[in-house]
User: What shape does this take?
Amino acid sequence: MNLFFRKSIIAGTGLFLCIFLIVHLSANCILLLPEDISREMYNTYSTTLRESPLIKIVAYLLYASIFLHTAYAAIVTYQNRNAKPDRYAVNNAKENSSWTSQNMGLLGILVLLFIVVHLANFWARIKLGMGAEVAMDNSGNLDVYQVTYSLFQNPYYVAFYTILAIPLGMHLHHGLKSAFKTLGFHHKRGLKVLSKVSLIYAAVMSIGFGIIPVIVYFK
Ligand code: HEM
Assistant: This one.
């Protein structure tokens, strides 16, 4: 399997995860509405997703993408390190590329740490029924709204989610640009636009995911 194939898997799965994050952040914005609308809406949304057969397929694609993205990124990073023992001597990469591009592995590990803790907080409780039982709301849906609000009463979790939204944004900023380039997008003016779009996308994701726990804490 050649390097281009591996990098294309990282790029393709990364773009799919970027789309997931847009949907996920939009849905999480419901949490910021007044409680009487928000609880009902968020719980109905969450139940609809869990019960839809089509969304179940998308969810499996999501888990597969997280796994493949991480596994292939680890393989490519490991092979790059082994191929270039004196990594900066030849092309002076330190001067030619950003800190973010050189540290995508480290940023990726932080994002993965976030995802593992996050899935333990929500997914394991809601989907696998692990830990404290989740109550029902008045409409008979699992009260995912309550799970979220009680988690973010804990300032350590608020800090964890908010601080890790920074490496998430940095990873997305470089990752989005890189994915398009890997998949063959080399149009000169297009790349400039892509660079701006990546920055805006990453800032919205980072600020959005980072600020929701803080707002919930003070609400
Ligand atoms: C404010 C921040 C966030 C909140 C409040 C939040 C909330 C939630 C909730 C409530 C669920 C469970 C949904 C359900 O099964 O009904 C969930 C699932 C999930 N979240 Fe988040 N999330 C946040 C940020 C993120 C971020 C930044 C990522 C990725 C980097 C992420 C990745 C996921 C994944 C992969 C799942 C599992 C989806 C599934 O099983 O279908 N979340 N999140």
